Structure formats: C-alpha cells, structure tokens
# Entry
Amino acid sequence: MRKLSCAGAVLVACAACSTGGLQVTVSGLPSGINAAVTVTGPGSFNQALTATQTLTGLAPGTYTVTADAVTIGGFSYGGTITGSPAQLQAKALTTIAVSYAAVTGSLQVTVAGLPAGASGNVTVTGPAGFSQTLAATQTLSGLSPGTYNIAVNAVRVSGGIVDQVYSGSDSSASVAAGITAPVSVSYLVFGTGKLWVALSGSLVAYDRSLLATSGSPPASISIAVTQGEAVAFDRGGNAWVASLSGNLLKFASSQLVASGSPTPMVTIGGPGASLPNPDSITFDSAGNAWLANASTIVEFTVAQLASSGTPTANITVSDNGGSLRRPIALAFESNGNLWAANLIGNTLVMFTPAQLAVTGSPAPAVTLSASGGSITRPIGLAFDSSNNLWASNFTTNTIVKFTPAQRSTSGSPTPAVTILAASGSLNLPTCLAFDNGGNLWVVNRGASTIVQFSASQLASSGSPMPVVTIGGLGTVDVGLCAFNPAPVTVPIYQ
# Structure
C-alpha cells in the first residue's frame, strides 16, 4: 500500500486526504481483447473495467473485484484474482490483480470416407458427463481439459438393391486448455452392399452394380471355402458359412473386402460340435446361431460362437415322427417362430420360441404339407416385407408363397402365388433372398445362374421372365445365400 500525499494545511478541502485509490491490473488476455472485470464497493459503487486501470477518489471501505470468463476463438479464459476483497484506506493506493488464463480447449473432429449426402454417426464423450453426436466434421469448443473418447457408429447408406454399411475405428484424444486437439474419423465400407452365395468351393459376392443388369460378370469377391452349403451374417457383418465337412466357419467383416483364402476367425466343428451335416444357418434376435442338420436343428449361443472349439449344441431339436426329414433351410419370422423346409419330407414346419427354449423332440406347432405339387423337395425359404413365406421347390422348378393366414394352422393350403419356370428361368432353384425393393433373387443350381423377379411379377401366379439374369455362377451345391446387409423391411433378426 502506497501513501497518497496531502498537500495543503486545510485537509477538509483536500480530496486526496479523505479518499484513496485502487489499481486493478489485468493480464493474460491476447492483445486487443477486452476483459470482463467488475469493481464494487461502498455507496453502491460499481464500475466495469476492460483492461488495467487505476481508480481514484474512492471512499475508504471494502472493495471487491470479480472477473467473468471471456471467450476467444472458441476458448474460455477465466480470471484468477489476487488481493480481493481489499480494504481501501484514505491517502493510500491499493492494488488488486486479475490474471486471465485459458480454462477450456477444443476438439476438431474430421469425418471422412462417406459418400456425398451421407451423414456420419460419431459420438464424443468426455469429462463432466460431456456427450455429443456429430454427423459431419465439426469443432467442439469450450471443452474441459481431459481425455475424450470418439466412438464411430456404423452408417447404413441406402441402395436400390442392397445397402452399404460404413464403419470406422474408435479412438481418443487429449484436450488441453487453450489448444485445439485434432482427431480424424475415417469411414470405410466393409464387405457389404453385396449378394453373397455359398458355393461348393467358395463364398462369392456380387455387388449392387453387378446385379443391376444381366450378364456373366466375375464375382466381386471370392473367398475359398471347402464344401460351403450356406452363408448367413451376424449383426456385426461377419459371415458364417455352414460347410458339409461338419464345420461352422466365421469370416470377419474385415476378411471380406478382397478375394483370397483367409483363415477363418472361428471354426466350430468336430465330433462334439453337433454338426454332422449342416445345410443351413440363421441367427435369432439374440445373436445365437441355428443350424439344420440331417434330422436335427441345433443352437449355438453367442458365447459358444466367440472362439473355435467343439462345443455341444446348447439346444437340439430332434425329429418327431418325420417332423424333421432333411431340414435344409431355416428362416425366423418377426415373432420369433422358426420355419424349416424339409427337403425329403416335402413339408414346411414351424416351431415356437417356447419349443426352441429347451432340448427335445417337439411336434411342430404348424406343418404345411403339399397340395398337389405345391411343396416338392423345398430347399429355400425367405420372408418378404409383408411376412409372407416363400419357398423354392427344387425338382418342380417353382417358387410358392404362403400368407400369414395360410400358416396359422396345419394343413395343405394352395399357395397364394406360384411362380413357374419360363425358358429355364428356374432350373433347380435353391436360395431365395429379397432385396431393398421387394424384388426376389433366386440361385439356380441347374443353370449356375442368379435371377431376379420384380416385386410386381410376384403379385400373382405366372411364368414371368426374370428382370435380371447373372450367369457363370460356378458349381452350386445347396447354394444358400444372403444379402449383406439384409433389407431393413425383412424380418431377419426380429
């Protein structure tokens, strides 16, 4: 505290003798930036300051200095005050210091790799419960210092035939006060946007551009697989192949981006694995895998699928008086009922979720039998977006449709729609798969082709010519197939 001089004998006439001064020093802000400082004191004194200033002629008493935060370029600067409150005395100069410093930082998230018009889905979380989802490149300002986690959520991009799914790797970034930390998110399409078919020696895929017009193009991707019978995809975009060698093979989505002979990430097989002759595979809503064998349907749990081994099936549904005679195709409907096509039994049978909950030999809740040649060596099953069940008849070269009402009780209903062959359009048809537009794709074992029937062609019985025919498929055994990703309108995972 410095004394103020009082020149003159008559003190009552000398203002400096009865008042004091207050010097407020402000530091730490970039040049040209105003502070937000307020001085309050006796007699309702209140004055705002934007920089260092000395206030004179102040009445003695207690003075308090406060400093509001200042935002500069996305950073918040807070003021640390030294010497406040201060007791100001007459004829004295009192000093209070305000030191500004950055207290928040920024995070610049750059999102790349998505096609034009597609929005990202990136979630940033951090200290103090911070959470924000970004759709594109963005700089997040006013962040508390600390570690921020960047979760890259999958993005599904719509397509006329099949969608594409883009994904990326999660990461983290350290945010410091006064600094903009950069982080990049790179989306990549992984093994999707394709129709996949399990052939006897390979797993092949045709992307949507190849499926747009007729021709005999080479497959987009070919993965070497011995005796592949069927392929299905889990929610993570991983391919699971049922092999006649008695194995269930998992190929991670990252292994499906190029042709080759990758080693399966997981192999379920061997004498203890309950897979003597797997013909079909599908997944339930919990992510458990269900496979059809010669006379059983078996379930492997998510935990059993996590690593290679020879596990005994968690659930085994066995034959009951001919209920399962070479079940060769499986399909769940949205309510969790499981349908199986019996190749030898010439029936379509349904088991309820309760029947699938325990090992046993339950009689099917519903059995659809042939009416004439309506169900003859059925080998492929698929549900459309209206929950109609379609089946391919291997030897009669037909495709038939059964409505929900026709499937409500056992019987021999006449199919609501029957698609007949026209000029070899159906030649030992096996796999059935619906695309985004409600069009039906069929794999023909006899002709080594894939054909497409439009949604309008499926509205009534007849012998329509396929809209698209893809030739040169190769050697087809059962040849069960799947779109990856599956159409959102079709009950694949319930």
In short: DSSP finds one helix and 44 strands in the chain.
